[in-house]
Design brief:
Chain A is an alpha/beta fold. The first copy, chain A, is built from ten helices and twelve strands. Chain A has a five-stranded mixed beta sheet with strand order 3-2-1-4-7. In chain A, strands 10-9-8-11-12 form a five-stranded mixed beta sheet, with helices on both faces. The radius of gyration of chain A is 21 Å and the shape is globular.
């Protein structure tokens, strides 16, 4: 069996041939360069062909292809919703791949699911069977591995923790993205900083140097280094929310580890100990003692390793894609 | 295969023989009458013997025994922690049953897990594969069925949602039982009513008729019927908390149904629509549209049906207890 893992991002697609123990044998990357709809599938075919050629793989060798997608992978249909790729509102990715590579197994999972598989195969949570991956970027989502299995739910909208209810009463601020994201996603951190600046006209600190509308979470983290009061207040609130949310994941799932990743961890990776201290107050006391918190060890490769891991896992489980 | 389901409570044990389609063929109940430790296991043997005799089952017929226990069933050891049964801090129930019935399969699950299996086999969530059971009694816990499987976690402390963090900042009131329980368990509802009465000396309503220390959640529900202001305020807060907590379960698990059970639902069953309305504000919008909320249809039998269901399920999956 030949194992191919592909990680589709908003601007590029990385691919690799994997050994049965999930190490990378060879790796290639192609740029999307504005491609949309079917042309993105075409680029996936090109990358597969290139890997097959470089790996001197025969046309009739059995292949298991795992793909990490930036959005939702619908497990029943094999279709994909990827908000950053035009024309991928409900793209029939599995069908397209099965047409092009008819004798192959095709497995498609969301980026947060692949991240947890990547970390559990080659990263910080290696060897654990119960792990939650908290992905904090523009939004917040979770990948969840319990009893060694990936969870999907009724319609693959699983782990939508950005909507976690943490701060009553309900506010209309939560309408767009949910309560947790409003305080603690990249977008939320920038929003809270802007809201605070509006009520703080005498402020002349670092964050007033940016054009107000362009203020980002990364500017807030930069300002935090010099103990800027606005940045400190916003990040303290985010730590409370990350702590409460991960406490809830610990009480619910009784995992061995919570892994924090995504663009914000990154700069927030140094805060993981403070998040654990906050979570320790709230969580089921035995479950939190049994659980470690850690930042991702594979910030750029977790998705690709996860894609490799599902290609191996599904082939071993003898799962077909029908 | 002979299927035996047993539901161990704090005061009695119910048992039944089940058909392969999980209907009850015959049923018996014995009272614990203060038994402790090994004597409770002895009563379980007596009940099994009685069912075997009544069912005219031969000694060498293969048996699959499922047991619902009021506490935590440790899946690796087969031991049980049951706080209301003296001597069952870590009782080796599976080992004892295997000694007494050596040729049988033995499956032990917590009451919240059995409740969800019971409801999904014979109750309100019949046929669904993704269901969360919210058990609200003295405390609060959840049984979780996802992708048709029961979840356990690293050490079977799964679904400890009584500890859900919902109301920051952290208060020492939450130390003992967690934030969600402090507002919305049976104990929590009584506590909130007492706290409110302390700040409300001019109150002369229905709740002032009870000896203060003996006030229970059921008294609060009784007072709610006559629109008592203290009861109304306490239950409104509990509805907000039940709504937020179940919204979090919906966003996380993307279930087809959330089932409310335990002693409080019961009197709170009429509030399920209001809980759904609160949850609708907070939850991931697509996931909440796909999810129904309902009260248990088997308030007294869910555990027993669930015990029957695991005896059948584990026998069909050809799972052994080793």
């Amino acid at each position: 069996m030949v194992y191919i893992g592909l990680d589709l991002g908003g601007t590029k697609i990385s691919g690799a041939l994997f050994s049965e123990s999930c190490t990378i044998l060879l790796q290639e990357t192609l740029l999307l360069e504005g491609r949309e709809g079917k042309a993105v599938a075409g680029l996936i075919f090109t990358l597969c062909d290139k890997l097959i050629e470089l790996g001197s793989i025969k046309a009739d060798d059995e292949k298991s292809i795992g793909i990490c997608v930036p959005g939702i992978a619908y497990s029943k249909t094999g279709n994909v919703w990827a908000p950053n790729i035009p024309g991928w509102e409900n793209f029939p990715l599995r069908e397209e791949l099965k047409k092009r590579f008819p004798h192959s197994l095709v497995s498609i999972e969301s980026d947060r699911t692949c991240s947890i598989l990547g970390e559990t195969n080659q990263g910080v949570s290696r060897g654990y069977k119960n792990v939650v991956f908290v992905a904090v970027g523009t939004g917040i989502g979770a990948g969840i591995l319990i009893d060694g299995r990936i969870l999907h739910g009724a319609s693959d909208i699983f782990g939508a923790i950005g909507w976690m209810a943490l701060q009553p009463p309900y506010s209309n601020d939560y309408d767009q993205c949910g309560c947790f994201e409003t305080y603690a996603s990249g977008t939320g951190i920038a929003l809270q900083a802007k809201n605070l600046l509006k009520t703080f006209p005498q402020y002349k600190g670092q964050l007033s140097q940016f054009p107000f509308d362009q203020l980002t979470a990364h500017d807030v983290f930069d300002a935090l280094k010099s103990k800027d009061p606005v940045a400190t207040q916003v990040i303290n609130k985010a730590i409370e929310m990350w702590g409460m949310a991960s406490a809830n994941l610990v009480s619910l799932f009784n995992p061995e580890m919570v892994v924090f990743g995504g663009g914000i961890f990154g700069p927030a990776a140094v805060l993981v100990d403070r998040i654990y201290m906050e979570a320790q107050k709230w969580a089921q006391p035995i479950a939190i003692k049994q659980c470690k918190f850690a930042a991702s060890e594979l910030p750029n490769l977790a998705g690709l390793y996860g894609a490799g891991a599902i290609s191996i896992l599904n082939s071993q489980n003898n799962l077909t894609d029908h």
